[in-house]
Amino acid sequence: MARFAYHLFPYLSDNYGVLIHDPESGATAAIDAGDGGAVLAALEEKGWNLTDLWITHHHADHTDGVSLVKEKTGCTVTGPKGKSSAIAGIDREVGEGDTFGFAGAEVRVIETPGHTLDMINFHLPSEGVVFTGDTLFALGCGRVFEGDFAMMWDSLSKLMKLPADTVIYSSHEYTLANAKFALSVDPDNPALKARAAKFEAMRADGKPTVPSTLAEELATNPFLRAADSGIRAHLGMEGESDAAVFAEIRSRKDNF
Ligand code: ZN
Ligand code: FE
After folding, report:
1. Which of 47, 115, 133, 193 is the most buried (most CB within 10 A)?
2. 21 catalytic residue (yes or no)
3. What is the pTM of this model?
């Protein structure tokens, strides 16, 4: 049973930050701090005091504000073990399978390398929520910068095993561009067509398309659908491995 309140806020051109708040203890966590001022403004707006900052990966749009937020709030910063560029200000380094507590709830760390080598995701089983950073987006996945396609497929495969009703908070509003691409590789998927139309209307209204659920992504996100016979037929890859189909889809997106 979910106990926490969640507050999504946009920053920079297309990033999302999230605050997680326990109304009972007052404990509050933030996912990433690409823009320290935006994190502090969101806290101010909600009247919440930051106790924890969880960093997904080293890219500047996720870390530039860490020192400012830490200085202003005294929060504890949890982030990935150094497998890419160092992230300044981390108090607690975590990796695959590590768990830690937040307001009495367990937080599980899932390493999902590919976009960067240091990428970690934060899963709260008791809340049914996962923060996927730049690994899994609504209808998309992160561009593979530091890892390779096989590594990214393994990472997405870990997320695919979470309970289907898991709520997915990702870090960017890329959804309409993702929808356009998804329809190019999975044009006959009625669930995808319906979801793309829904997202068009939401964005026209200025609404965020984040969060979504894993069940929705499994039904419509082509990067999770390498095993789908319709996509395989469309790509002419019926006999290939899931990893090979994923690699083809990801490289098509890179050139879309
Ligand atoms: Zn990134
Ligand atoms: Fe990013």
Report:
1. 133
2. no
3. 0.98
